[in-house]
Amino acid sequence: MMVIAAIENRIKEKQEEYLETLFTLLRQKSISAQNIGIAETGELLTKMMEEIGIKTQIIPTAGHPVIYGEIINDPEYFTLLIYGHYDVQPPDPIEEWDSPPFEPTIRDGRIYGRGAGDNKGQLMAQLLAVKTYQEVAGELPINIKFVFEGEEEKGSPNLIPFVEAHKELLKADLAYTSDGPMHDSGAPFVLLGARGIVYVELEAHGADWDNHSGNKGNIVPNPAWKLVELLNTMRDKEGNVLIEGFYDDVRTPTETELELLKTLPYNQEELGEKIGYKDLQMTGEEYYRKLTLEPTMNIAGFNCGSRKTIIPGKAVLKMDMRLVVDQDPYDILEKFKKHVAKHAPDMEIKVHSMRHPSRTSPDQEIVQVIRDAVEKSYKQPPVMQPSLGGGLPDYVWTQVLEVPSVIVPYANFDEANHSPNENIGVDNFFNGIRCTCHVIEALAEFYQK
């Protein structure tokens, strides 16, 4: 505990320096979807890591490179693999930002800028934790490997091939990710998995161009109706997905996982206000079960025509399906295509992204070690949840690398990631540094038992 006390003091002494280090990374654009600033960010991040004493290399992939680093003080030590991503979403719409997205600004105790919460702020908290721990203790009591990818915002299309090709290099005892927001109550999170996704686009056609609805209203077919009729075959009024075999591989939750749901904090009224849906009517157990253990089918966008009175020549529908553990996105996609072919054979299907779901058992001893470390750091019990509601490439650690994985987000619940005015609380940033140090210390004690 003397090390932790010294770390607390060092973080307080270095606050201005640590903020400027983060700001340097935030100022560097790294928009993966547009390939803006990716190479420059990789070089900057590599330099920052090497200055901390991390042996670092830029490893090419079929897309954007992975920044890999390691500190191996003893091959026999416990090895932690830290994952994050250095790419960000486009900042559009620019006019809705209160300050320029790539000029980090502090207002009312928050750091505003694209990537502040997702994921540069959390990535930098981890790196600065390593720097702090080494300066205080001399060296790390565990080995740490770092994998920072540049395509998470594109669905991590090359992460699985990268991990498959470098299994020996990445060999570890535990994967640790800090991404996403903390619990809406403000409590820290320990998440044991993530839902997968199949994100598709359907395109229906009618005439070769738009037509006046008065002149051709009952003559030219409207492709929007084709999509509406197809949608009616996919889901019943209770929200059950009607695609044959959709639920076949959904894993039955364990008793421990179901018990976890009953312990999670829940305030229906407050949550309804935070998500902008005051008509929310669910018990806490029902809410968390739907969020973490059940798959979904969602209409993400529907575009056809305009404000003019026309019959559109084309209609486009975007859909995402959130998958839970043991559902295979490739299998679900084939079942989806088969359903579409049966009910609308002339429909075009484009696949935007796919990601596998993942889950680590809460019964593993290492999970309790992380939970206790987080509780000591934040001085309150964390919320432990079977899965993240959204998606992260957690599958590559649990299924490809075959190690347990935990997700401990550091950002505030209202970080506005992917939106204008993205932010991370100043306290959240420093608490993330502190929490990572506690995790390092706890894992060392666990290994030495």
From TrEMBL:
<dbReference type="GO" id="GO:0006508">
    <property type="term" value="P:proteolysis"/>
</dbReference>
<dbReference type="InterPro" id="IPR036264">
    <property type="entry name" value="Bact_exopeptidase_dim_dom"/>
</dbReference>
<keyword id="KW-0479">Metal-binding</keyword>
<protein>
    <submittedName>
        <fullName>M20/M25/M40 family metallo-hydrolase</fullName>
    </submittedName>
</protein>
<feature type="domain" description="Peptidase M20 dimerisation">
    <location>
        <begin position="193"/>
        <end position="347"/>
    </location>
</feature>
<dbReference type="InterPro" id="IPR002933">
    <property type="entry name" value="Peptidase_M20"/>
</dbReference>
<dbReference type="InterPro" id="IPR051458">
    <property type="entry name" value="Cyt/Met_Dipeptidase"/>
</dbReference>
<dbReference type="Pfam" id="PF01546">
    <property type="entry name" value="Peptidase_M20"/>
</dbReference>
<dbReference type="GO" id="GO:0046872">
    <property type="term" value="F:metal ion binding"/>
</dbReference>
<keyword id="KW-0645">Protease</keyword>
<dbReference type="GO" id="GO:0008233">
    <property type="term" value="F:peptidase activity"/>
</dbReference>
<dbReference type="Pfam" id="PF07687">
    <property type="entry name" value="M20_dimer"/>
</dbReference>
<dbReference type="InterPro" id="IPR011650">
    <property type="entry name" value="Peptidase_M20_dimer"/>
</dbReference>
<keyword id="KW-0378">Hydrolase</keyword>
